[in-house]
Amino acid sequence: LAGPGPSGLRPEHIQEMFRARKRCVTGRLRRMWRRFLDLARAGLLPDSARWILGSDVMFLEKPGKPAPRPIRKGETLAKDVAKSLIRDHKVKIERLMKSFGQYGVGIPGGAEALFHARATIQDLAKASSQKVIIIADLDMVNWFGRIEWPAIRQGYAKHLPEMLPWTEWCTRTPLEAVLPCGRKAVINRGTGQGESDGPLKASVVGGEAVVQARMVTEAHQVGSWVDAWFLDDGQIFCRPEQLEPILKALDTELAKAGATRGSIAAGDDIKSMLTIIGPEDQRQQVIQGLSGYVKDTCRIQQTEEELKVLGGALGAATQQAVEFHKLGAKLKK
């Protein structure tokens, strides 16, 4: 069974109603359902219907992390509205995500494709590069929970206006989420993990931030750079002299939306990682010349250190073999 929201309503309950034997009953039910979806998608539901925006919160363990991952279990009715919008505008959403270099929404197998492309590029760079290349693996701090609602509305207004009326209705006033202890938390930002359109909202905001950052770097003649994303996990390929202006431009745009990669000075758990590839003497010069800003917001991968990207291990064959045996040992337990 699918997980219910605070009301206990599940998709299976609605499916059972549509299986009623009397056709006149199911006919009225279907007309009522279409009317509900039409009003919701147009943002015209009455305030008395805002109970469908409620959610329960559950916490899932993060491997190797003390803080759990909060997952919001929303009401089935609200999920169905979001799913219907995504289904009807699937082609446009896929086209938009491809333009953003975003492989986490609307692209089946996007993580696997991105991982293999990254591994190939890194191997080629190590084998043939005579100049230093930097691959920056970027990650956000509490990405889904930090995004400001105005940034989501602005992103939809620009790129997916078809999604805007429903989102404006949902974010008109703060929402409530029921914690496992029974207390209620007020929510006035973010796109909860567990929402049907949560990844889409986050990706539109992130994609627009990258677009604006690229415009800034072009205006300052930083030079061309390449990026690819899986939700909030980004990969940037650039030259050493480009790194700081790219990161500063991107961080500035992300901050406008309420997001951040965090910093050591702020006490954050920094997850952004730099892989510096090139001749060893040049590589060491680049590491020594990294600015304080870069060192405060990124970690530097050591040559012998294993790097995990999108859940997969990158590195020497011996390192990957060790990781494979670790996974095998876990499966035996």
Give a quick set of tags describing it.
single chain; 333 residues; alpha+beta; five-stranded mixed sheet; four-stranded mixed sheet; 13 helices; elongated
Q: Which helices and strands appear, and what pairs or packs with what?
A:
Elements lengths: L10 H7 L5 H19 L13 E6 L8 E6 L1 H13 L1 H11 L9 H19 L4 E6 L4 H4 L2 H11 L4 H7 L4 E4 L5 E4 L10 H22 L6 E5 L2 E6 L1 H17 L16 E5 L2 H10 L2 H6 L1 E2 L6 E3 L2 E3 L2 H16 L1
Parallel strand pairs: 1-4, 8-9
Antiparallel strand pairs: 1-2, 3-7, 3-8, 4-5, 6-7, 10-11
Helix pairs in contact: 4-9, 7-9, 9-10
Describe the structure.
The protein is an alpha+beta fold. The chain has 13 helices and 11 strands. The strands form 3 sheets. A 5-stranded mixed sheet has the order 6-7-3-8-9. A 4-stranded mixed sheet has the order 2-1-4-5. Strands 10-11 form a two-stranded antiparallel sheet. A hairpin with a 2-residue loop joins strand 10 (307-309) and strand 11. Helix 7 (149-159) packs across helix 9 (198-219) and helix 9 (198-219) crosses helix 10 (240-256).
